[in-house]
């Protein structure tokens, strides 16, 4: 453990890792108390995630929206904005791509690409709406973004029922085959797992996030605004423009999630009673990852694995899915309460000095 | 400092030891040649006090009577439905049930890509897929009887219907109920609200509040877990000294919510259907590709046995008359409102 601490130069990395371990231990204790076997449970979790080609494909399918959502939130966080409206941006992106995917006739790939682009832009504009309310009327983005989630949800119901309904069911008509962005041959290889273009686009987004904040002036401006927007204004940075730009990109990433689900996974859009909640997972993931590229990536993967694997726990050890919900919440709890975890850390730092 | 770490290590180690110790005892992983049945719920849970729970009770009874290995999975989102079904299929489960019409697309997909697997779906009329048996209930017939009770017993001449989603299954409840009310009480008004969800207790509660405020005294619901909110609202009003009624659905809901507010329940014997068809399937007579339709005649639907607590004998004999008429074919109950 001391050696590990020595190599962990950054305490910020250590905190989430420790939080995760502690949460898993707590989860095991809860399972023991409830009368389930935690070893079998965690085994079946891993088995569910890596057990077959299908599961590997599906866990990727499950991780992609969480990753993107994490980065959408992290991006806004960097500019000092809390975008909890990713759910709404997902919905708008999904419904926009759905409409293009069903109503328009284009050749394959071009159709998918067009629908994807329209969905992304629609999601971005939904984000810009939040930025506009903030910059023009100083409405707090937390309030406007969460309320706009409902507007987005019911707008999607109206559009689905009004324009592309499927009789006798709670969903839209199917998109045209030409608009599909599934990777069919890879999907066959993975026994039908629903993999799509997101497999390639998501890494690009992650790299783009890294590049934007580490190599470009725009990223630097964004961070300055996030640190202190008055100082940024004084330094001659056009704060409002940066808020708008950030919310556009953040919303566009949100829109992309909806596009992937609609064109790549379901091929239709369900009339659901609530938004997916992926946007709120994104808040947790960005928090867990400390808004960094590596951190957000790792935490997105972790939460995705836990969420997907929870079915395995239910199947293999009979553990109710509520327990895995508790474990995920515990991880976030321990990360959000770093004081608890850091109580262990100062000791480690002493150790480090002793060793050196 | 090292002490703290050491304590943690011991804790973790101890935990795993304890856990390993359990392995041999409680959780035996070897189910051997035991026939197995799986069940995937809709986005509700197996404790929804409604159709999911009913199906699960059917499976638990199978376990008791025949020792079958039964398991369920509760997908947390639409995306998880297919992986959940596949989890059973890939584990060579002998029969996998999907408990709701909303799972139809997923069942069809999985059945077509896994022709060796046997699947069943409740509340669906999925025809012509050789390895899927669909169970469809004539809810309209049972709901008609509930309508007869409501139409006769209402004092305000206003009754309500709360539906989960506006899909064919629920429309059958609606149509049958409205027809039953009209048959005995042409003046009565039927207020209708489709809340759009089977798992939103809050929406059920507000839908009920709106109806009771509008003068409705009996609400019939077909909304799964959402309906719990209706009972909730009715109970609050009862506690405040105002008598309002709810007609339960799927199961005998008076057992759950008490006789103060539950007038009767329209039974939908999902448990019995799941029980019978599972047993048939596992003993070599799998009715694949068929739609099994269960109505009053087949005892697939009806009113709860406990109805006589709150419903008078005269009303019940009237119900009995209508039941005969429906079985004889003298009354044709509409399927759509």
TrEMBL record, chain A:
TM segment ranges: 12-39, 59-77, 84-104, 110-133, 145-164, 195-213, 248-271, 283-306, 318-341
Pfam family, any one: BPD_transp_2
GO terms, molecular function: transmembrane transporter activity
Keyword Cell membrane: yes
Record's bilayer topology term: Multi-pass membrane protein
PANTHER family noted in UniProt: ABC TRANSPORTER, PERMEASE PROTEIN (PTHR47089), GUANOSINE ABC TRANSPORTER PERMEASE PROTEIN NUPP (PTHR47089:SF1)
Descriptive protein name: ABC transporter permease
From TrEMBL, chain B:
Pfam family, one: Bmp
Bilayer topology: Lipid-anchor
UniProt subcellular location: Cell membrane
Range of residues in the leader sequence: 1-19
InterPro entries documented for this protein: BMP_lipoprotein, Peripla_BP_I, PnrA-like
Residue span, ABC transporter substrate-binding protein PnrA-like domain: 38-335
Protein name (Swiss-Prot/TrEMBL): CD4+ T-cell-stimulating antigen
Native organism: Halolactibacillus alkaliphilus
Gene for this chain: tcsA
